[in-house]
Amino acid sequence: MSARATPYLDDLNPAQREAVEAMDGPVLMLAGAGTGKTKALTARIVHLLNTGRARPNEILAVTFTNKAAKEMKNRVSRMLGAPVEGMPWLGTFHAICVKLLRRHAELVGLKSNFTILDTDDQIRLLKQVIAANDIDEKRWPARQLAGIIDHWKNRAWTPSNVPNAEASAFNNRGTELYDQYQRRLLELNATDFGDLLLHVVTIFQTHPDVLEQYQRWFRYILVDEYQDTNVAQYLWLRLLAGAHKNICCVGDDDQSIYGWRGAEVGNILRFEKDFPGAKVVRLEQNYRSTEHILAAAAGVIRGNEGRLGKELWTEAEGGEKVRLIGHWDGEEEARWIGEEIEATQKGTRGMAPKSLDSMAILVRASHQMRAFEDRFLTIGLPYRVIGGPRFYERLEIRDAMAYFRLVVSPSDDLAFERIVNTPKRGLGDKKQQDIQVIARRNGVPLIEGARILLAEGGITGKGAGELRALVDNLDRWSRMTGHADVSHIELAEMILDESGYTTMWQNDKTPEAPGRLENLKELVKALENFDNLQGFLEHVSLIMDNETDEAGAKVSIMTLHAAKGLEFPVVFLPGWEDGLFPSQRSMDESGLKGLEEERRLAYVGITRAEEVCTISFAGNRRVFGQWQSQLPSRFIDELPQEHVEVLTPPGLYGGGYGAAAPGFEGITSTIDQKVAQTNVYNSPGWQRMQARAGNRPVSQPRETRSQVIDLEAVSAYTVGDRVFHQKFGYGAVTGIEGDKLDIDFEKAGSKKVVAKFVMASND
Ligand code: ATP
Ligand code: MG
Description:
Elements: H1 7-10, H2 14-21, E1 27-31, H3 37-50, E2 59-62, H4 66-80, E3 90-91, H5 93-104, E4 115-116, H6 119-132, H7 142-154, H8 174-187, E5 190-191, H9 193-206, H10 208-217, E6 220-223, H11 231-241, E7 247-251, H12 266-274, E8 279-283, H13 291-301, E9 322-329, H14 330-346, E10 359-363, H15 369-379, E11 383-385, H16 395-408, H17 413-419, H18 429-442, H19 446-455, H20 461-480, H21 488-498, H22 501-506, H23 513-527, H24 533-545, E12 555-559, E13 568-573, H25 584-588, H26 593-606, E14 609-623, E15 626-629, H27 634-637, E16 644-646, H28 666-682, H29 684-693, E17 706-707, E18 722-725, E19 729-737, E20 740-745, E21 749-754, E22 758-761
Helix pairs in contact: 2-3, 3-4, 5-9, 6-7, 6-8, 9-10, 9-11, 13-26, 14-15, 16-17, 16-20, 18-19, 19-20
The structure holds adenosine-5'-triphosphate (ATP) and magnesium ion (MG).
């Protein structure tokens, strides 16, 4: 094939060209964000095809997500000026390994039509294995074992080569159970996610002929986001590239953000050792972001030790500084960002109007999405959530909502089915079927069916006790709706606690569990904007109705992890508060490893922005109905001052909060706002920031009418204290009993209320 024209090379700078044109032998492109690594990698594929070095199906190209694979395929077609017919081996590690494993399944004892278990199936199977070994699953939960096995698979350890150092895992039984689990999988002709890679590595290691076949077939290997490969992936690559060594990896040590999932940034450093004579290309020009954005990102990442250290520059001088703004709480932050997006859409601060597609909100934790989704629904702003379900679609949220639905309408059978055995109540499929049959026969809802089953003695033992407790609880909770003494927020907390649902996740040792608990807290927080459960449920069904994925421009909401490799003209980075970002876990850890990974995440976030980057934090977040004051993230302190513009939050100098706080009315609203103001502007972080930015001193709110008593401070109440309750107004404490207070309210009379729902008052 004769070489065709190469317009795609003209778009590259000399260093990129070098990486593209050096077709044979190992190449490592190690460069910072936005320097055109992915672009060069794509051009390299085009060049290999164009010069006839390889046919489309002889190129193995690994991307981090399926979305990235699709984009790369499109880009190749565009650069080539013709659609590529099939690049079957362009995809994620997993997608590629599924294909390989289907071809050679029998070599590891599987059939080619093996099934891939999802997490739920995997857990179910592990439970069976644990039970078969007479181990108490309550003390040694299946999810914990799943985490351990996953960790081992990421390191390419089969049951027989888990190192001795790990022998104590899972009460000394880990390795043995891992072995049994693998056998069960084979019997079921199934694999879990981690197996896909592990089996293929095993096949390559034990069948040199098969390995050789692929070493010959994949003439060229390319890998994007190389810094996030784990040991198993690394081994797999090294085996495949071992003969011809035509491997090109691109990555950025500063963007390694999957250490918690077993990725090893050390793989980058080992590359030159494993592939001696590798051509190492460094790229330093950033084509994505303006000067200030780049400098701000550089300022933050400089705080990490042991970096390879790369300096970036851009021709895009000037532009806007990174904008920094503090809000009094998370709802206000969401409201403000919504307004900014609408303004940007129309054109603001001298900028041309921008499409919603060019804007993104990148959050640290998925529970942060809820405030934005609610707000955008209210103002009718189209959005999409990338890389995960929307907030109200999450498993734990759907479960919790099913409980709420049942309490509001006991005949909601779908909700009943969903939660009758979640958490586990010893009700197997058979018993659940019995309930269905009885309900159908009598023409009554499932909950009634359950009652009949109990009355008829059709169920005995542990299951009977738990089912009765559930049915009775549901009744009791239903009676409490609309009860003046119990707010719907208290009721929701009660339901989640008493049903055992919260406990289920507290006992769960998987990495996702803390996030799910956060989401549940966030769900309760969302209730504060509504008068009762019913209103809330209606709101959510409205959101779900809005699901239809109609075309048209939309703002993107996603986690920082999901934003890797992407770019947007306008980026919002909310929630920069210690404990949220960096995460509490990383701050509690001894050593700097976790914190440094968070800092890389901050670097990834800022470097997604092309023109406008806005960082924000809230001075207060409400957790379970109480204010928690937040400190601005330590990463904010690390932003170089000369590249940052501190914005004045609305309402600070007498500006109105107006409709800032939906759901708060009258006096409550005033007090809450003042509380918030007090906390935000008294916080040391805020004062520090203002001082640095050279702003005039912040005046205190005119008067502080109340202070917030948090849970720990409950004992601070004494008989005779004057307090304020959102619903019942002012009153005096007449008695104290644990976390409950007897209060004589001026208008509402004597009541017992949970202490955390009142505020001390000086009025
Ligand atoms: P990340 O580390 O975030 O994945 P990256 O190094 O992969 O970034 P790319 O996404 O390839 O960077 O490129 C960033 C932007 O710069 C893209 O919009 C790309 O089109 C543009 N770009 C890359 N190289 C050049 C170049 N030589 N000339 C002009 N634009 C370029
Ligand atoms: Mg990239």
